[in-house]
Structure formats: structure tokens, C-alpha cells
Automatic annotation (TrEMBL):
<keyword id="KW-0520">NAD</keyword>
<dbReference type="InterPro" id="IPR016040">
    <property type="entry name" value="NAD(P)-bd_dom"/>
</dbReference>
<dbReference type="InterPro" id="IPR036291">
    <property type="entry name" value="NAD(P)-bd_dom_sf"/>
</dbReference>
<dbReference type="Pfam" id="PF16363">
    <property type="entry name" value="GDP_Man_Dehyd"/>
</dbReference>
<protein>
    <submittedName>
        <fullName>SDR family NAD(P)-dependent oxidoreductase</fullName>
    </submittedName>
</protein>
<feature type="domain" description="NAD(P)-binding">
    <location>
        <begin position="4"/>
        <end position="306"/>
    </location>
</feature>
């Protein structure tokens, strides 16, 4: 298939691109390489695939309708994997208009291009944050998702609803995948596991928001990639699916795991809970398992060990080149 991969230079997108290429697909990657985090990191992600014959990179914005049209015209797109978004719960509280514009208007721009070019298959990256602070655990797709705690969560839910509208009006096949805290090699530097690992390795204190009891359902990036590809292989109708590890861990225990993997103890700087943060996330993956055969393979202990090993290797490279 010819697959338009938006946000393809990012953490999940670059890992997905490699797997799609291995499976023989043609990947048209669109990314604006914005400054939310160091664009050089994204560019290095792109360079891993640039020499592949079936990989085509275009720098640009999902809100640019003319550019999106050009990509559909040039490459005869068969399906879209829409990962491009402004990420981050806490920053969205500071700039809600930007999150709405990119995550909602941007998604609408892509959907309208699909309609114009008669492309009817999309996998959309949503988020577990749409569940808000739901007391029902594990979170099931049938649970209410109309109480978001941040503009980021609200923007993802709004985009899901747009996807359903285009399914209803034009017969699009769209799966909205609610990702649960993704981690692994190449993850964004502001994410907790990255920050904790970096600080502990460099002997700096780590900032811990709250008392350490908050829990997250961490999902290794390889499992996320598997869920996306399984969705592409089974796209029919409109579905919302949880893609998670289904094994939450408290912040305190996560820090212990990182300490064990590094062999050093963390110095902790305790801070109050942040606006928009939820107490816990926990995926019920029954539906994804039944519908697409999704089953996470990498447990958190193994995933953290792999991440720390990768991160050390990156530090060694940096030291060797400076």
C-alpha cells in the first residue's frame, strides 16, 4: 500500500515507518519538524529511512490543504496513518488554541483531503487521556469520554468525533486507537522515563509531581506499532480501540525500576500535582485483542531495561562526538 504517514518523524511515527517499509509498503512521511522538542532529534529519526527506495519525506504542516492535496495527487495514497498532533497534557493548559488548531483543524484538513481524493482508510492516533479521571478501571471503550481534564484530551476526543462523522457521511473505514503512555527508544525527551533516566545518569535530582501513587499503563513502542499495523490489516467500519500494556505501574515503582536498570539511586524533588494530570490510566484491551489480535509483548521491566540500554548508548555517542 501507499501510506501517508503524518507525524512520521516523531517517536511513534519513525518506529512505524521502519516496520511498514520492512513489510513492503510505500511510506509517504509528512512532518513539520516543529520546535516542541529538538527538531534535530526528528531529523535523525527521518535519516534512518531516507535511503529506502519506498520512503518519501516531505516537510510541512497538516493544516496546509494544498500540500496535502499535492501528496494525494503525487503518490496515489491508499490509506492514512494520522499521528501528527501537538502532544503533551501540561503544555496544552498553557496554549489551548494551538492544540485545538493542530489537533482538530489539522485532522479535519486531512479528512477533507481524503474525501476529495476518495481515500477511505485511516488509522487515527488518539489518547487514553480522553477518559479523564475515570473511576472505572480498567478503562473500556464503552466508558464515557466526555469529561476531559486538559485541552489536549479534549482535542483528541473532538478529532475522534470528526472521524466518526466522516465514517457516517462518506463510508470511511477509520480506527481510532487510544494509546496508553508510550515509551521506548527515540521517545520524546520531556517524557517521564526519558527525564528520569537522564537525570539519574547525570547525578541530578528528578522532579516528582505528587506523592508517587499516580499510576500509568506504559506501553512499549513496538507494541504500539504492532497495534497500528494490525489495525491497517483489519480496517472495516468505525472503531475505537484501546492500545495499552494493560499492566499499570505507580510512579514510585517506575522510578525503582529505572534505578535498578541504571544501578544508581534517584534523588527526588517532590512537587505538587500538575493541572490536567490524572490519577491513573489502565487499558482494557479485550476489544483490540478480539478485533485485531492485539496483545502487548513487552512487559514494563523489560521495556525499561531496553530503554536505559538505548539511552546509555546515545550518551556514549554524544560523548564520542564532542
Amino acid at each position: 500500500m501507499n501510506i501517508l504517514l503524518t507525524g512520521g518523524a516523531g517517536f511513534i511515527g519513525s518506529n512505524l515507518a521502519k516496520q511498514l517499509l520492512e513489510e513492503g509498503h510505500r511510506v509517504i512521511c509528512l512532518d513539520n519538524l516543529d520546535g516542541y522538542y529538538d527538531p534535530d532529534i526528528k531529523w535523525r529519526n527521518v535519516q534512518q529511512s531516507l535511503n529506502e527506495l519506498n520512503y518519501h519525506f516531505h516537510e510541512g504542516d497538516i493544516r496546509d490543504a494544498e500540500l496535502i492535496d499535492m501528496l494525494f495527487r503525487l503518490y496515489s495514497i491508499d490509506a492514512v496513518v494520522h499521528l501528527a498532533a501537538r502532544a503533551g497534557v501540561r503544555p496544552s493548559v498553557q496554549d489551548p488554541a494551538l492544540y485545538y488548531d493542530v489537533n482538530v483543524t489539522g485532522t479535519l484538513t486531512v479528512l477533507q483531503a481524503m474525501q476529495r481524493w476518495n481515500v477511505k482508510k485511516m488509522v487515527f492516533a488518539s489518547s487514553s487521556s480522553v477518559y479523564g479521571d475515570s473511576p472505572n478501571v480498567p478503562f473500556a471503550e464503552t466508558d464515557t469520554a466526555d469529561r476531559p481534564l486538559s485541552p489536549y484530551a479534549a482535542s483528541k476526543r473532538a478529532a475522534e468525533l470528526l472521524c466518526h462523522t466522516f465514517h457516517h457521511l462518506y463510508g470511511f473505514d477509520i480506527f481510532c486507537l487510544r494509546f496508553f503512555t508510550v515509551y521506548g527508544p527515540q521517545q520524546r525527551p520531556e517524557m517521564a522515563i526519558s527525564q528520569f533516566t537522564d537525570s539519574i545518569l547525570k547525578g541530578r535530582p528528578i522532579n516528582v509531581f505528587g506523592d508517587g501513587s499516580t499510576a500509568r499503563d506504559y506501553t512499549y513502542v513496538e507494541d504500539i506499532v504492532s497495534g497500528i499495523i494490525q489495525s491497517l490489516d483489519n480496517l472495516k467500519g468505525y472503531e475505537v480501540l484501546n492500545i495499552g500494556g494493560s499492566d499499570p505501574i505507580s510512579l514510585a515503582n517506575l522510578i525503582k525500576l529505572i534505578e535498578q536498570s541504571i544501578g544508581e539511586q534517584a534523588r527526588i524533588n517532590r512537587l505538587p500535582m500538575q493541572a490536567g494530570d490524572v490519577q491513573q490510566t489502565y487499558a482494557d484491551i479485550t476489544k483490540a485483542s478480539q478485533l485485531i489480535g492485539y496483545q502487548p509483548a513487552i512487559q514494563i521491566e523489560e521495556g525499561v531495561r531496553r530503554f536505559v540500554e538505548w539511552y546509555r548508548s546515545q550518551l556514549d555517542v554524544c560523548l564520542a562526538t564532542h
